[in-house]
Amino acid sequence: MPVQPAQRPRWSQIDTVLLDMDGTLLDLQFDNYFWLQLVPERFAQRHALTLEAARQALTPRFAARQGTLDWYCTDFWSRDLGLDIAALKHEVRERVEYLPGAEGFLAEMRRRRLRTALLTNAHRDALRVKDVQSGLTRYFDVVVSSHDYGAPKESAEFWRRAQAEVGFDPSRSLFVDDSLAVLRAARAHGIAQVYAITHPDSGGGRREVTEFPAVPRVADLLD
After folding, report:
1. Residues 186/194, Cβ–Cβ less than 8 Å
2. Which of 11, 75, 100, 106 is the most buried (most CB within 10 A)?
């Protein structure tokens, strides 16, 4: 259900729109397919394992890195898994798609002449592949990867560095993401208006979010 009018952003109080990429603008179905299906298949082939054995081997390795910068790093996983992760992403790049309504939302931000910044944990290699396929970065004034700072969006250090580079006023900024851990970090930094996305993967169900104002799609934030 779309967000109710009283829950929509206070657009008159926003100068800068800060947006996540995967699961907010681009369909998380790509990443879920990549990490849950393609990587286990190629890991199994590379190491002469059954698919089930490959998944059993990968699960604890993934869990150990979740929430760290390594979790999002193509270089780290290429070394760790013996696979060229950037090349694999390029191989299946045609699966990269916008979430419904996301591109229209970005066009509306340009029409309103609001300053826009893409804040992503994605490695620059992954960002490049997705940008070539989608043309995403043309909608943004600034594009920030957490790898530029050596700190993930879940950390206070990321937000200190991002504010210094982008130059946003937290009290007059909107931030949208699908990760609760990242949203908490943004709130702790003082971002005035923080919204969660509840339907980041078009192939999956909606999540229940009560900790933050939440919408199924970023387009539901529009008046």
Report:
1. yes
2. 106
